[in-house]
Amino acid sequence: MENMSSRERMLAVIGGEKPDYVPCSIYFNNALRIEGYELGTPEGRVRCQMDLGTEPVVDVPLPAQGMRAGVSSRTWVSMIEGERHPVLFKEYSTPEGKLRQGVYLTKDWPFGNDIPFPGNDHCASNNYEPLLKTSDDIHAFEYLWEEPGEDCIESGKKAVSGLLWLSNKYSVLTRATVGQGLAVAMFCMGAENMVLFSMDYPEAFAKIAELEHRMTMKKIEIADYYGIDLLKKFGGYEQTNFFSPSVFIDIAAPLAKKEIIEAKRRKKAMYYRVVTGMKPLLGEIADIGFDCVEGFEPELSVCTNNDIKAAFSKKSTVWTGVSSPVHLGADSEEPVRKAVRDAMETFGDEGFILGVTNSIRPHWPWANTLAMVDEWKKLTGRKPYC
Question: What is the pTM of this model?
Answer without folding.
Answer: 0.95
